[in-house]
Fold Major facilitator superfamily (MFS) profile domain-containing protein.
Amino acid sequence: MKVNEESGQSKKELPNRSLVLAACAACIGGTFQYGYNISVINAPTTHVLNFINQTWITRFQTDISTNVLTLLWSSIVSIFTIGGLVGVTVGGTLSMKLGRKGTLLANNAFAITAALLMGLSYPTGYFELLIIGRFFIGLNAGIGLCVQPLYLGEIAPTAFRGAMGMGTSISITLGILAGQVVGLKELLGREESWPILLATTCVPAFLQLMILPWFPESPRYLLIDKGDSEGCKKALKQLHSVSRCEGEREEIEKEKRGLADFRAKTPWELLSDRSVRVQLLTVVLLNMAQQLNGINAIYFYANYLFTQSGIPAERIPYVTLGCGACELLTALTCGILIDRLGRKVLIMGGYALMSICCILFTLTLSYQSASPIVPYLSMACVFAFILSFGLGPGGVTNILTTELFTQTTRPAAYMIAGSLNWLSFFFISMVFPFVVVGLEQFCFIVFLAICACMTLYIYFVVPETKNKTFVEIQNEFKSSKKAHIVDETTMKELLSHM
Protein backbone atom coordinates (compact mmCIF):
# COMPACT_ATOMS: atom_id res chain seq x y z
CA MET A 1 0.00 0.00 0.00
CA LYS A 2 2.85 2.39 0.89
CA VAL A 3 4.58 1.62 -2.39
CA ASN A 4 1.47 2.64 -4.32
CA GLU A 5 1.14 5.85 -2.31
CA GLU A 6 4.78 6.72 -2.93
CA SER A 7 4.47 6.05 -6.64
CA GLY A 8 1.29 8.14 -6.76
CA GLN A 9 3.06 10.96 -4.94
CA SER A 10 6.00 10.86 -7.36
CA LYS A 11 3.61 11.11 -10.27
CA LYS A 12 1.98 14.15 -8.71
CA GLU A 13 5.36 15.86 -8.57
CA LEU A 14 5.62 15.89 -12.36
CA PRO A 15 3.82 18.56 -14.41
CA ASN A 16 1.20 17.53 -16.95
CA ARG A 17 2.59 16.91 -20.45
CA SER A 18 0.11 19.35 -22.00
CA LEU A 19 1.34 22.05 -19.60
CA VAL A 20 4.98 21.52 -20.62
CA LEU A 21 4.12 21.55 -24.33
CA ALA A 22 2.09 24.75 -23.94
CA ALA A 23 5.06 26.39 -22.22
CA CYS A 24 7.42 25.28 -25.03
CA ALA A 25 5.00 26.62 -27.67
CA ALA A 26 4.84 29.99 -25.89
CA CYS A 27 8.63 30.19 -25.51
CA ILE A 28 9.65 29.31 -29.07
CA GLY A 29 7.97 32.40 -30.53
CA GLY A 30 8.34 34.49 -27.37
CA THR A 31 11.54 35.22 -25.49
CA PHE A 32 13.50 32.83 -27.73
CA GLN A 33 13.25 35.59 -30.36
CA TYR A 34 14.78 38.10 -27.94
CA GLY A 35 17.86 35.95 -27.29
CA TYR A 36 18.18 34.86 -30.91
CA ASN A 37 18.12 38.40 -32.32
CA ILE A 38 20.61 39.69 -29.75
CA SER A 39 23.26 37.18 -30.83
CA VAL A 40 22.49 36.55 -34.52
CA ILE A 41 23.40 40.12 -35.52
CA ASN A 42 27.02 39.68 -34.38
CA ALA A 43 28.15 37.12 -36.99
CA PRO A 44 27.38 39.13 -40.19
CA THR A 45 28.83 42.45 -38.90
CA THR A 46 31.64 42.66 -41.48
CA HIS A 47 29.41 41.49 -44.34
CA VAL A 48 26.68 44.02 -43.54
CA LEU A 49 29.25 46.84 -43.34
CA ASN A 50 30.57 45.83 -46.78
CA PHE A 51 27.01 45.78 -48.14
CA ILE A 52 26.32 49.30 -46.82
CA ASN A 53 29.60 50.58 -48.30
CA GLN A 54 28.92 49.02 -51.72
CA THR A 55 25.36 50.34 -51.77
CA TRP A 56 26.59 53.83 -50.87
CA ILE A 57 29.16 53.76 -53.71
CA THR A 58 26.47 52.63 -56.19
CA ARG A 59 24.14 55.44 -55.14
CA PHE A 60 26.55 58.35 -54.72
CA GLN A 61 29.69 57.23 -56.62
CA THR A 62 31.84 57.83 -53.56
CA ASP A 63 33.05 55.90 -50.51
CA ILE A 64 31.04 56.27 -47.33
CA SER A 65 32.82 58.07 -44.48
CA THR A 66 33.80 56.06 -41.41
CA ASN A 67 31.57 58.14 -39.13
CA VAL A 68 28.47 57.66 -41.30
CA LEU A 69 29.15 53.93 -41.64
CA THR A 70 29.52 53.62 -37.86
CA LEU A 71 26.31 55.60 -37.35
CA LEU A 72 24.34 53.39 -39.74
CA TRP A 73 25.65 50.19 -38.15
CA SER A 74 24.95 51.41 -34.62
CA SER A 75 21.44 52.36 -35.78
CA ILE A 76 20.86 48.83 -37.08
CA VAL A 77 21.98 47.36 -33.76
CA SER A 78 20.43 49.85 -31.31
CA ILE A 79 17.04 50.29 -33.05
CA PHE A 80 16.29 46.80 -31.70
CA THR A 81 16.14 48.27 -28.18
CA ILE A 82 13.83 51.10 -29.30
CA GLY A 83 11.48 48.54 -30.86
CA GLY A 84 11.65 46.50 -27.66
CA LEU A 85 10.73 49.52 -25.55
CA VAL A 86 7.71 50.26 -27.75
CA GLY A 87 6.75 46.57 -27.68
CA VAL A 88 6.78 46.29 -23.91
CA THR A 89 4.66 49.45 -23.51
CA VAL A 90 1.90 48.03 -25.74
CA GLY A 91 2.32 44.38 -24.71
CA GLY A 92 0.40 44.71 -21.45
CA THR A 93 -2.50 46.49 -23.14
CA LEU A 94 -2.68 43.89 -25.92
CA SER A 95 -2.61 41.07 -23.37
CA MET A 96 -5.72 42.52 -21.72
CA LYS A 97 -7.60 42.95 -25.01
CA LEU A 98 -6.50 39.91 -27.02
CA GLY A 99 -5.58 37.63 -24.12
CA ARG A 100 -2.14 36.23 -23.34
CA LYS A 101 -2.26 33.50 -25.98
CA GLY A 102 -3.95 35.76 -28.56
CA THR A 103 -1.25 38.41 -28.16
CA LEU A 104 1.56 35.87 -28.56
CA LEU A 105 -0.01 34.58 -31.78
CA ALA A 106 -0.63 38.08 -33.20
CA ASN A 107 2.93 39.09 -32.27
CA ASN A 108 4.34 36.70 -34.87
CA ALA A 109 3.20 39.11 -37.61
CA PHE A 110 5.99 41.49 -36.54
CA ALA A 111 8.62 38.71 -36.69
CA ILE A 112 7.53 37.60 -40.16
CA THR A 113 7.49 41.21 -41.40
CA ALA A 114 10.98 41.76 -39.96
CA ALA A 115 12.32 38.59 -41.62
CA LEU A 116 10.88 39.69 -44.97
CA LEU A 117 12.39 43.19 -44.74
CA MET A 118 15.86 42.04 -43.64
CA GLY A 119 15.93 39.19 -46.17
CA LEU A 120 15.05 41.55 -49.04
CA SER A 121 17.56 44.25 -48.07
CA TYR A 122 20.45 42.76 -50.09
CA PRO A 123 18.59 41.82 -53.32
CA THR A 124 16.83 45.23 -53.41
CA GLY A 125 19.93 47.20 -52.45
CA TYR A 126 18.24 49.08 -49.60
CA PHE A 127 20.18 48.90 -46.30
CA GLU A 128 17.36 51.00 -44.77
CA LEU A 129 15.26 47.83 -44.73
CA LEU A 130 17.69 46.40 -42.15
CA ILE A 131 16.95 49.30 -39.80
CA ILE A 132 13.18 48.95 -40.24
CA GLY A 133 13.39 45.16 -39.93
CA ARG A 134 15.41 45.37 -36.71
CA PHE A 135 12.82 47.76 -35.29
CA PHE A 136 10.03 45.28 -36.06
CA ILE A 137 11.89 42.34 -34.52
CA GLY A 138 12.60 44.52 -31.48
CA LEU A 139 8.86 45.22 -31.27
CA ASN A 140 8.25 41.45 -31.39
CA ALA A 141 10.85 40.82 -28.67
CA GLY A 142 9.41 43.53 -26.41
CA ILE A 143 5.88 42.14 -26.61
CA GLY A 144 7.20 38.60 -26.10
CA LEU A 145 9.20 39.61 -23.01
CA CYS A 146 6.11 41.23 -21.54
CA VAL A 147 3.40 38.67 -22.39
CA GLN A 148 5.15 35.28 -22.36
CA PRO A 149 6.07 35.39 -18.63
CA LEU A 150 2.45 36.43 -17.95
CA TYR A 151 1.17 33.38 -19.80
CA LEU A 152 3.62 30.95 -18.17
CA GLY A 153 2.98 32.32 -14.67
CA GLU A 154 -0.80 32.11 -15.08
CA ILE A 155 -1.07 28.62 -16.60
CA ALA A 156 1.27 27.03 -14.04
CA PRO A 157 -0.01 25.45 -10.81
CA THR A 158 1.47 26.90 -7.62
CA ALA A 159 3.83 23.94 -7.09
CA PHE A 160 5.43 24.35 -10.55
CA ARG A 161 5.27 28.13 -10.98
CA GLY A 162 9.00 28.59 -10.38
CA ALA A 163 10.08 25.88 -12.81
CA MET A 164 7.58 27.08 -15.43
CA GLY A 165 8.66 30.67 -14.99
CA MET A 166 12.24 29.62 -15.72
CA GLY A 167 11.04 28.89 -19.25
CA THR A 168 11.58 32.60 -19.96
CA SER A 169 15.26 32.51 -18.97
CA ILE A 170 15.88 29.13 -20.61
CA SER A 171 14.34 30.25 -23.92
CA ILE A 172 16.39 33.48 -23.91
CA THR A 173 19.67 31.63 -23.36
CA LEU A 174 18.64 28.94 -25.87
CA GLY A 175 17.95 31.72 -28.38
CA ILE A 176 21.37 33.28 -27.75
CA LEU A 177 23.05 29.91 -28.23
CA ALA A 178 21.02 29.15 -31.37
CA GLY A 179 22.00 32.53 -32.86
CA GLN A 180 25.66 31.82 -32.16
CA VAL A 181 25.46 28.34 -33.73
CA VAL A 182 23.56 29.41 -36.87
CA GLY A 183 26.00 32.32 -37.30
CA LEU A 184 29.05 30.04 -37.58
CA LYS A 185 30.86 30.06 -40.94
CA GLU A 186 30.07 26.38 -41.39
CA LEU A 187 26.34 27.24 -41.45
CA LEU A 188 24.98 30.70 -42.39
CA GLY A 189 27.89 32.91 -41.29
CA ARG A 190 29.34 33.19 -44.81
CA GLU A 191 29.19 36.44 -46.79
CA GLU A 192 26.67 35.17 -49.34
CA SER A 193 24.35 33.81 -46.63
CA TRP A 194 23.89 36.77 -44.26
CA PRO A 195 20.46 37.88 -45.66
CA ILE A 196 19.17 34.32 -45.10
CA LEU A 197 20.71 34.33 -41.61
CA LEU A 198 18.80 37.47 -40.59
CA ALA A 199 15.60 36.18 -42.21
CA THR A 200 15.65 32.96 -40.15
CA THR A 201 13.82 34.84 -37.40
CA CYS A 202 10.61 33.83 -39.19
CA VAL A 203 11.21 30.14 -38.36
CA PRO A 204 10.32 30.39 -34.62
CA ALA A 205 7.30 32.52 -35.58
CA PHE A 206 5.92 29.87 -37.95
CA LEU A 207 6.58 27.14 -35.37
CA GLN A 208 4.56 28.98 -32.74
CA LEU A 209 1.71 29.65 -35.18
CA MET A 210 1.51 25.90 -35.87
CA ILE A 211 1.76 24.68 -32.24
CA LEU A 212 0.31 27.25 -29.80
CA PRO A 213 -3.28 27.26 -31.21
CA TRP A 214 -3.66 23.69 -29.91
CA PHE A 215 -3.37 24.90 -26.32
CA PRO A 216 -5.80 27.02 -24.26
CA GLU A 217 -5.79 30.61 -23.10
CA SER A 218 -4.63 31.44 -19.56
CA PRO A 219 -7.27 30.08 -17.10
CA ARG A 220 -6.80 33.14 -14.85
CA TYR A 221 -7.43 35.49 -17.75
CA LEU A 222 -10.54 33.55 -18.74
CA LEU A 223 -12.10 33.53 -15.27
CA ILE A 224 -10.96 36.82 -13.71
CA ASP A 225 -10.77 39.13 -16.74
CA LYS A 226 -13.46 37.59 -18.97
CA GLY A 227 -15.70 35.86 -16.42
CA ASP A 228 -15.66 32.69 -18.56
CA SER A 229 -16.07 29.99 -15.92
CA GLU A 230 -16.62 27.17 -18.41
CA GLY A 231 -13.60 28.18 -20.52
CA CYS A 232 -11.46 28.32 -17.38
CA LYS A 233 -12.59 24.83 -16.38
CA LYS A 234 -11.74 23.38 -19.81
CA ALA A 235 -8.34 25.10 -19.83
CA LEU A 236 -7.47 23.75 -16.37
CA LYS A 237 -8.47 20.22 -17.37
CA GLN A 238 -6.22 20.35 -20.43
CA LEU A 239 -3.24 21.98 -18.72
CA HIS A 240 -3.40 20.23 -15.33
CA SER A 241 -4.33 16.76 -14.19
CA VAL A 242 -7.95 16.20 -13.13
CA SER A 243 -6.85 15.86 -9.48
CA ARG A 244 -5.29 19.37 -9.50
CA CYS A 245 -8.03 21.02 -11.54
CA GLU A 246 -10.48 21.82 -8.73
CA GLY A 247 -7.80 23.00 -6.32
CA GLU A 248 -6.37 25.44 -8.86
CA ARG A 249 -9.84 26.70 -9.78
CA GLU A 250 -10.64 27.38 -6.13
CA GLU A 251 -7.38 29.33 -5.78
CA ILE A 252 -8.24 31.46 -8.86
CA GLU A 253 -11.77 32.12 -7.55
CA LYS A 254 -10.33 33.09 -4.16
CA GLU A 255 -8.07 35.63 -5.86
CA LYS A 256 -11.04 36.96 -7.86
CA ARG A 257 -13.12 37.41 -4.69
CA GLY A 258 -10.25 39.29 -3.04
CA LEU A 259 -10.04 41.90 -5.80
CA ALA A 260 -11.92 45.15 -5.30
CA ASP A 261 -12.80 45.25 -8.99
CA PHE A 262 -11.87 43.16 -12.01
CA ARG A 263 -10.66 46.01 -14.21
CA ALA A 264 -6.97 45.75 -14.99
CA LYS A 265 -5.02 48.82 -13.85
CA THR A 266 -3.04 51.09 -16.13
CA PRO A 267 0.67 51.73 -15.42
CA TRP A 268 -0.15 55.23 -14.12
CA GLU A 269 -2.80 53.82 -11.73
CA LEU A 270 -0.29 51.26 -10.51
CA LEU A 271 2.34 53.94 -9.90
CA SER A 272 -0.10 55.90 -7.74
CA ASP A 273 -1.30 52.83 -5.79
CA ARG A 274 0.29 52.96 -2.32
CA SER A 275 -0.77 49.39 -1.48
CA VAL A 276 1.74 47.87 -3.95
CA ARG A 277 4.53 50.44 -3.66
CA VAL A 278 7.09 48.02 -2.15
CA GLN A 279 6.33 45.34 -4.76
CA LEU A 280 6.64 47.87 -7.57
CA LEU A 281 9.92 49.27 -6.22
CA THR A 282 11.25 45.71 -5.95
CA VAL A 283 10.53 44.71 -9.55
CA VAL A 284 11.79 48.09 -10.83
CA LEU A 285 15.14 47.64 -9.06
CA LEU A 286 15.41 43.97 -10.08
CA ASN A 287 14.73 44.70 -13.77
CA MET A 288 17.12 47.65 -13.90
CA ALA A 289 19.84 45.67 -12.11
CA GLN A 290 19.37 42.79 -14.56
CA GLN A 291 20.89 45.00 -17.28
CA LEU A 292 23.23 47.12 -15.13
CA ASN A 293 24.86 44.35 -13.07
CA GLY A 294 27.85 43.86 -15.41
CA ILE A 295 26.79 40.87 -17.53
CA ASN A 296 27.15 43.00 -20.69
CA ALA A 297 30.60 44.12 -19.54
CA ILE A 298 31.68 40.50 -19.09
CA TYR A 299 30.72 39.68 -22.67
CA PHE A 300 32.56 42.82 -23.84
CA TYR A 301 35.76 41.73 -22.10
CA ALA A 302 35.40 38.07 -23.13
CA ASN A 303 37.02 38.51 -26.58
CA TYR A 304 39.90 40.51 -25.06
CA LEU A 305 40.55 37.84 -22.45
CA PHE A 306 40.37 35.00 -24.95
CA THR A 307 42.91 36.82 -27.14
CA GLN A 308 45.17 37.49 -24.10
CA SER A 309 45.05 33.78 -23.26
CA GLY A 310 46.52 32.90 -26.65
CA ILE A 311 43.35 31.60 -28.31
CA PRO A 312 43.52 32.17 -32.11
CA ALA A 313 41.05 34.75 -33.46
CA GLU A 314 39.33 32.18 -35.69
CA ARG A 315 38.67 29.98 -32.63
CA ILE A 316 37.17 32.72 -30.43
CA PRO A 317 33.59 32.31 -31.84
CA TYR A 318 33.65 28.69 -30.64
CA VAL A 319 34.83 29.72 -27.16
CA THR A 320 32.08 32.35 -27.10
CA LEU A 321 29.73 29.52 -28.00
CA GLY A 322 30.93 27.84 -24.81
CA CYS A 323 29.85 30.94 -22.85
CA GLY A 324 26.37 30.66 -24.37
CA ALA A 325 26.20 26.96 -23.53
CA CYS A 326 27.36 27.76 -19.99
CA GLU A 327 24.53 30.28 -19.50
CA LEU A 328 21.97 27.79 -20.87
CA LEU A 329 23.25 25.11 -18.49
CA THR A 330 22.84 27.42 -15.49
CA ALA A 331 19.32 28.41 -16.60
CA LEU A 332 18.37 24.72 -16.74
CA THR A 333 19.99 24.16 -13.33
CA CYS A 334 18.06 27.11 -11.90
CA GLY A 335 14.85 25.60 -13.29
CA ILE A 336 15.55 22.40 -11.38
CA LEU A 337 16.52 24.13 -8.11
CA ILE A 338 14.10 27.05 -7.94
CA ASP A 339 11.15 25.13 -6.46
CA ARG A 340 13.47 23.39 -3.99
CA LEU A 341 15.77 26.15 -2.75
CA GLY A 342 13.37 29.05 -3.38
CA ARG A 343 13.55 32.32 -5.29
CA LYS A 344 15.18 34.43 -2.58
CA VAL A 345 18.13 32.09 -2.00
CA LEU A 346 18.94 31.82 -5.70
CA ILE A 347 18.69 35.50 -6.67
CA MET A 348 20.43 36.74 -3.50
CA GLY A 349 23.14 34.08 -3.83
CA GLY A 350 23.57 34.96 -7.52
CA TYR A 351 24.18 38.64 -6.78
CA ALA A 352 26.52 37.78 -3.88
CA LEU A 353 28.63 35.53 -6.13
CA MET A 354 28.64 38.18 -8.87
CA SER A 355 29.98 40.70 -6.30
CA ILE A 356 32.86 38.35 -5.49
CA CYS A 357 33.55 37.81 -9.20
CA CYS A 358 33.71 41.60 -9.75
CA ILE A 359 36.45 41.86 -7.11
CA LEU A 360 38.43 38.96 -8.59
CA PHE A 361 37.94 40.23 -12.13
CA THR A 362 39.27 43.70 -11.22
CA LEU A 363 42.35 42.12 -9.62
CA THR A 364 43.12 39.73 -12.50
CA LEU A 365 42.63 42.45 -15.15
CA SER A 366 44.96 44.75 -13.18
CA TYR A 367 47.75 42.13 -13.16
CA GLN A 368 47.35 40.48 -16.60
CA SER A 369 51.10 40.50 -17.26
CA ALA A 370 52.16 39.38 -13.77
CA SER A 371 52.02 35.68 -14.66
CA PRO A 372 50.99 33.47 -17.62
CA ILE A 373 48.34 31.97 -15.34
CA VAL A 374 46.50 35.28 -14.71
CA PRO A 375 44.70 35.46 -18.12
CA TYR A 376 43.32 31.97 -17.47
CA LEU A 377 42.14 33.07 -14.02
CA SER A 378 40.36 35.95 -15.77
CA MET A 379 38.70 33.44 -18.11
CA ALA A 380 37.58 31.45 -15.07
CA CYS A 381 36.04 34.65 -13.68
CA VAL A 382 34.12 35.12 -16.95
CA PHE A 383 32.53 31.69 -16.69
CA ALA A 384 31.93 32.06 -12.93
CA PHE A 385 30.17 35.41 -13.46
CA ILE A 386 27.97 33.98 -16.22
CA LEU A 387 27.13 30.98 -14.03
CA SER A 388 26.19 33.26 -11.11
CA PHE A 389 24.03 35.45 -13.34
CA GLY A 390 22.20 32.51 -14.92
CA LEU A 391 21.65 30.81 -11.58
CA GLY A 392 20.03 33.84 -9.96
CA PRO A 393 19.24 37.25 -11.55
CA GLY A 394 18.94 35.93 -15.10
CA GLY A 395 16.20 33.46 -14.22
CA VAL A 396 14.42 34.59 -11.07
CA THR A 397 13.74 38.26 -11.95
CA ASN A 398 10.85 37.55 -14.35
CA ILE A 399 9.32 35.02 -11.96
CA LEU A 400 9.23 37.56 -9.12
CA THR A 401 7.60 40.11 -11.43
CA THR A 402 4.79 37.58 -11.96
CA GLU A 403 4.46 36.52 -8.33
CA LEU A 404 4.51 39.89 -6.54
CA PHE A 405 1.30 41.10 -8.24
CA THR A 406 -2.30 39.95 -8.67
CA GLN A 407 -4.32 39.67 -11.88
CA THR A 408 -5.43 43.30 -12.07
CA THR A 409 -1.95 44.78 -11.50
CA ARG A 410 0.30 42.22 -13.21
CA PRO A 411 0.09 43.48 -16.86
CA ALA A 412 0.83 47.07 -15.79
CA ALA A 413 3.72 45.84 -13.62
CA TYR A 414 5.23 44.08 -16.64
CA MET A 415 4.84 47.21 -18.74
CA ILE A 416 6.65 49.38 -16.16
CA ALA A 417 9.35 46.81 -15.33
CA GLY A 418 9.85 45.89 -18.98
CA SER A 419 10.15 49.54 -20.06
CA LEU A 420 12.85 50.17 -17.45
CA ASN A 421 14.60 46.93 -18.46
CA TRP A 422 14.78 48.06 -22.11
CA LEU A 423 15.79 51.61 -21.15
CA SER A 424 18.57 50.20 -18.96
CA PHE A 425 19.63 47.96 -21.86
CA PHE A 426 19.80 50.99 -24.17
CA PHE A 427 21.58 53.07 -21.50
CA ILE A 428 24.29 50.48 -20.83
CA SER A 429 24.88 49.91 -24.57
CA MET A 430 25.38 53.66 -25.11
CA VAL A 431 27.30 54.56 -21.93
CA PHE A 432 29.34 51.43 -21.27
CA PRO A 433 32.02 52.04 -23.97
CA PHE A 434 32.78 55.43 -22.37
CA VAL A 435 32.88 53.85 -18.89
CA VAL A 436 35.42 51.29 -20.14
CA VAL A 437 37.60 54.00 -21.72
CA GLY A 438 37.46 56.11 -18.56
CA LEU A 439 37.85 53.45 -15.85
CA GLU A 440 39.29 50.50 -17.86
CA GLN A 441 39.40 47.39 -15.62
CA PHE A 442 38.16 49.41 -12.63
CA CYS A 443 34.72 49.70 -14.28
CA PHE A 444 33.84 46.51 -12.38
CA ILE A 445 33.93 48.49 -9.13
CA VAL A 446 30.70 50.15 -10.37
CA PHE A 447 29.11 46.75 -11.02
CA LEU A 448 30.35 45.52 -7.63
CA ALA A 449 28.41 48.33 -5.93
CA ILE A 450 25.23 47.47 -7.88
CA CYS A 451 25.46 43.72 -7.15
CA ALA A 452 26.25 44.27 -3.45
CA CYS A 453 23.36 46.72 -3.00
CA MET A 454 20.93 44.30 -4.67
CA THR A 455 22.12 41.48 -2.38
CA LEU A 456 21.34 43.60 0.71
CA TYR A 457 17.99 44.83 -0.66
CA ILE A 458 16.79 41.30 -1.45
CA TYR A 459 17.91 40.04 1.97
CA PHE A 460 16.02 42.73 3.91
CA VAL A 461 12.97 43.42 1.70
CA VAL A 462 12.03 40.58 -0.66
CA PRO A 463 10.04 37.69 0.88
CA GLU A 464 10.31 34.05 -0.17
CA THR A 465 7.47 33.22 -2.60
CA LYS A 466 8.08 29.50 -3.06
CA ASN A 467 4.89 27.36 -2.88
CA LYS A 468 2.74 30.39 -2.04
CA THR A 469 -0.36 31.48 -3.93
CA PHE A 470 -0.59 35.01 -5.32
CA VAL A 471 -3.08 35.88 -2.55
CA GLU A 472 -0.72 34.57 0.17
CA ILE A 473 2.16 36.64 -1.22
CA GLN A 474 0.01 39.79 -1.21
CA ASN A 475 -1.11 39.10 2.36
CA GLU A 476 2.53 38.73 3.44
CA PHE A 477 3.34 42.18 2.09
CA LYS A 478 0.26 43.62 3.82
CA SER A 479 1.18 42.03 7.14
CA SER A 480 4.76 43.34 6.92
CA LYS A 481 3.40 46.86 6.28
CA LYS A 482 1.07 46.57 9.28
CA ALA A 483 3.97 45.44 11.44
CA HIS A 484 6.02 48.42 10.23
CA ILE A 485 3.16 50.82 11.08
CA VAL A 486 2.79 49.24 14.53
CA ASP A 487 6.54 49.64 15.15
CA GLU A 488 6.40 53.32 14.16
CA THR A 489 3.40 53.94 16.42
CA THR A 490 5.09 52.20 19.35
CA MET A 491 8.25 54.24 18.84
CA LYS A 492 6.26 57.50 18.80
CA GLU A 493 4.48 56.52 22.03
CA LEU A 494 7.79 55.75 23.73
CA LEU A 495 9.27 59.06 22.62
CA SER A 496 6.20 60.95 23.85
CA HIS A 497 6.54 59.34 27.33
CA MET A 498 10.19 60.27 27.43
